[in-house]
Amino acid sequence: MAQKYDYDLFVIGAGSGGVRASRVAAQLGARVAVAEERYLGGTCVNVGCIPKKLLVYASEFGDAFADAAGFGWTVGPRRFDWATLIANKDAEIARLNGVYERLLTNAGVTIVNGRATLIDAHTVAIGAERVTAKYILIAVGGWPAAPRIPGAELAIDSNDAFHLHALPSRAVIVGGGYIGVEFAGVFAGLGARVTLVHRGPLFLRGFDDDLRAALAEEMRKRGVELRFATQLERIEKHRDGVRAALSDGAAIDADFVMLATGRIANTRGLGLETTGVTLDGAGAIVVDRYSRTSVENIFAVGDVTNRRNLTPVAIAEGRAAAETMFGRRALAVDYDNVPSAVFSHPPLATVGLTEAEARARFGAIDIYKSSFRPLKHTLSGRDERTFMKLVVEPKSDRVLGCHMIGADAGEIIQGLAVAIQCGATKERFDATIGIHPTAAEEFVTMREKAAS
């Protein structure tokens, strides 16, 4: 006689991946429950993509006010109020929490409020309650990781940054990934004096080197102090704030130190050891191409697997996992040509291979570059340049990568990502008529190869 379970699928974590998997599985006829101990929507909605972009928008108005003079505008006295921004941000996040609740409820998914842990491969505990399921999906995301240094408890992390009571006048940000770079731009754009400390020779490891160098130059123009090849050694209380002691002997006083030194899979205390689910050396769940763990009926998606830690990727993984469990065929996510953006000041975006990756894979490649002053800044007077780059495989003429830093980079690269995914060649780029005057048209007018 077939084993009876309370649910066909029990999802632990109602973030982007967990919510999508729950909805798709329910639409496929499965009985689904999802447990969430914090907030519906996960990192992205609550302490990630959405509130961060709202803060980025806020930090861009200072530039807009300054640039307006060159276009004939006289802007009167202005004042920024951090409390208003945070209150409005919180109201929007609360609205989105409600949207996620309705999406799940309307799909027929049961929402369980509380922390869920694994008892065995088919049993989950939420407090004193025990629930069984044919399949279990783990989608608990990641959590900020702090370095083990003296005084680390005096610092804040990226989660805390969304709930500060006041805007800092002096901030030290430690870390050279998305989070550190973006918050450096946010706080500097809102008027703070910002120092970014990164242990490597250049931030944003994994992005194209030309893009990384161009962003460093632009951030310095905006007054952000970049201290590369430097480490934070300790944090001490100092007067009305803290003091950051660095490996180069410098000591920087600030209102706070923000640790943006990475995130780790949120697997601790889930009970995975009782099921035999395999973890890697960093504590992330090991999965196959279908997001199945070492235990046949347990799947995992999103940042907890530490593959491509991006919200749209987690959503794609959630859908694919649900299709694999309850659809007509197993479905895997294609991780080639995943576009991404950093909402820095100015923003950058990329899709496909970097120059270094392309050379390692194909050997000889063709590079096309363009650096120019945007039309807007011929009147604003702002010293900011846009940079674009194409990476091309000469034998097939296929465009392997598109990279950009400048206004609307994310919007432009999202469109080009479709072309890259379709295997567009440089010839087809060249045959495309541009929209004039736009920055984006430069991608279809670059003709001269850069020196190798």
Structure in words:
- The structure is a single chain.
- This protein has 452 residues and is of the alpha/beta class.
- It folds into 3 domains: 200 residues, FAD/NAD(P)-binding domain, CATH 3.50.50; 109 residues, FAD/NAD(P)-binding domain, CATH 3.50.50.60; 99 residues, Enolase-like, domain 1.
- Helix content is 31%, strand content 24%.
- The protein contains 12 helices and 22 strands.
- The strands form 5 sheets. Strands 1, 2, 3, 4, 5, 6 and 17 form a 7-stranded mixed sheet that branches.
- Strand 12 and strand 13 form a beta hairpin.
- Helix 1 runs parallel beside helix 8, helix 3 crosses helix 4 and helix 3 packs parallel to helix 6.
- The protein starts with 6 loop residues before the first strand and ends in a 21-residue tail after the last helix.
- 42% of the residues are buried.
- The model has no long low-confidence stretch (mean pLDDT 96).
